[in-house]
Amino acid sequence: MHQRTTPPTGSASTPGRRRLARKALLAASTLGVVTALMAPVRAGAAPAPAAPTTATPLAANGQLSVCGRRLCNASGEAVALNGMSTHGTQWYAQCVNGGSLDALAKDWRADVLRVSTYVQEGGYETDPAGFTARAQKFVDAAHARGMYAVIDWHMLDPGDPNANLSRAKTFFTAMAKKYKNHPGVLYEIANEPSGVSWSAVKSYAEKIIPVIRAQDPDGVVLVGTRAWSSFGVSEGANESEVVNNPVRASNIMYTFHFYAASHRDEYLKTLDRASDKLPVFVTEFGTQNYAGEGANDFTMSQRYLDLMKRKKISWTNWNYSDDHRSGAVFKTGTCNGSTWTGTGVLKEAGVWIRERIRQ
Which of 30, 39, 139, 245 has a beta carbon 3.0–4.6 Å from 149's, enabling a disulfide? Predict the structure, then answer.
């Protein structure tokens, strides 16, 4: 689906106690007591923001859960999170800093940051401890600004998530152990499975979810679907294979990815049908072609956004960086500077998606 295989150029406690701890942490955050922010990833990064004076998405909604086919807040009300995905943090960590995240939270008014930890392609497998620490730094920074964080295990090639099963267990044990008492995380366990059957993806999910649940019984888990998280459409199938053989776990959602210039009515209709029967979170999409390149198709993109708004489907857009491709929201070179707010630093796609998030 979205091929990004070349580097860019340019202590155990009861569930009840965990829930109480999450509430206490959230209350502290609302009062501005939680001030441990991300250490700057580059010299000259903007300082951490002051405590928010109005309710942030995290403070307003608290612990999320899946209720029926929807994502719901601590009051049981259906919510839809809108935000951005980082690029691969092995390439564009410099774009995730105090200033850029201040802009995302305050200027863009985003609810969520997806933190994309690639497994291969110079990512996690080259330095597991280092990339785990980096992911935690970015998750902490999102939380400090009142945003939720999607912890994205960005497996891409090989397309069989089982090929990285041992690594995934290590990564998610560390992440779930750290965030077991925090209401602000969602665990995305397989970015874009491809070239494998749904039964293989399901088997992987049923091995990884218990690893997360052993540490964090309350966090929402996002399960990738096959054929680059298209519910199988990109390999000639459809959502019925998931509907008829769902993952044996609770408090989960299934992911769907699309790129509007490439993925037309068949994909849109699949998302519509699937979300009638399954809880769905669109963890990645773009207004360009499947490679995040080329001209933007804002008309088709808006059709997707209208559907997702009507059905309260959460989404994160690819991507919050200054990659040279049209799918990166910032103009090339922006991440070397200090200006993040407004539209002057944005490409056409960035201007468009910022406005949709602000709405």
Answer: 139
